[in-house]
Design goal:
Largest sheet: 8 strands, mixed
Distance between the termini: 15 Å
Oligomer: single chain
Number of helices: 12
Radius of gyration: 20 Å
Mean pLDDT: 81
Helix content: 40-55%
Structural class: alpha/beta
Length: 314
């Protein structure tokens, strides 16, 4: 006889990923503790910290973020392959996870990334946890790609946004998927033409870019986050476009390899770069679990029972 393992697939979704913290907290509190954790993009960050026993540190970091602090972590790079080097974020992660390797984790964990050039789906199951997280969340055009074992990797959401298939391959008998973009599925998206020329105030700031560091910072902040009626910033445009594509891929893959249960946090109204809204996002993650908790507990109780060993042969 063999133990019926529970897997959880944590999907991508930029700032919405803080909802994963609430989902995992609520599941564990209800006695549903996953044996296998697979994450894509922000799901890899939360899943990796969960598997490493560092959820308290991650939650503390997330809840402490303000809009100003988020911007402070963005080390802009105008000459490389991403707008942000990501070094400041890496240093923060390294502070808690520097010597942690995936193969040493007590909870089995895999981060999903995409190889540049080939488009191969890469499952990162060995090596430094921080490096795997970085590769999985390296949003194209925003973060620099990461080189691991000779491969240049970026965001895994390009190939497997909600990695149910990886949980299955690792032997999970019951897979819970967490889809952060479910509220995108029922609406179309129309992008109108927009004037990309800076407004007069931005022109003035740009002229003083090399004379006044504060003006440069304010200009970058407006361009990155957007400002009122001037339209969305670069981050919003790129991340939202990426998530629309991700949503379409996720629906296709989930239809072909459906999970046993899907948790869909209600995240409408939360921007994809609203990392400073962690309190609300975590609470919405908890609420999503509580809505379906009775059914989840019943189904997990059945799968937690002993099952024939041959069921794991595949």
């Amino acid at each position: 006889m063999a133990y019926g393992k529970i897997g959880i697939a944590l999907g991508g979704g930029a700032a919405r990923g803080w909802a994963h913290i609430g989902v995992l907290r609520a599941l564990v509190q209800a006695g549903i503790v996953p044996d296998i954790v697979v994450g894509t993009s922000i799901g890899a960050v939360v899943g990796g910290c969960f598997s490493a026993g560092r959820m308290d540190e991650l939650e503390g970091f997330a809840r402490d973020l303000t809009r100003r602090k988020v911007f402070g972590y963005l080390d802009f790079n105008l000459t490389g392959s991403g707008l942000i080097t990501g070094q400041r974020l890496v240093e923060r992660l390294d502070g808690h996870l520097r010597d942690v390797h995936i193969e040493e984790l007590t909870t089995k964990f895999v981060a999903v990334a995409t190889e540049i050039g080939t488009g191969h789906e890469v499952w990162l199951s060995r090596g430094r946890l921080v490096d795997s997280m970085r590769a999985s969340y390296a949003l194209p055009g925003i973060f620099k790609p990461v080189k691991i074992n000779g491969r240049w990797l970026f965001d895994g959401a390009l190939v497997n946004p909600v990695p149910v298939s990886v949980c299955r391959a690792l032997g999970a008998r019951y897979v819970i998927a967490v889809n952060l973009n479910a509220d995108l599925s029922n609406r179309g998206t129309v992008v109108a033409d927009a004037d990309v020329m800076p407004e007069s105030g931005e022109e003035a700031a740009a002229q003083g870019l090399f004379k006044n560091g504060r003006s440069a910072r304010k200009l970058l902040q407006r361009q990155f986050f957007g400002s009122g009626e001037s339209g969305p910033g670069i981050s919003t445009v790129m991340v939202d476009a990426f998530n629309i594509v991700q949503d379409r891929i996720a629906r296709s893959r989930l239809a072909g390899d459906p999970p046993d249960a899907v948790i869909n946090p209600k995240l409408s109204g939360i921007g994809l770069f609203d990392f400073h809204h962690a309190d609300e996002l975590i609470n919405r993650g908890v609420a999503a679990v509580q809505r379906d908790l009775d059914e989840l507990q019943r189904e997990v109780a059945v799968r937690r029972m002993f099952v024939p060993a041959h069921a794991h042969a595949h």
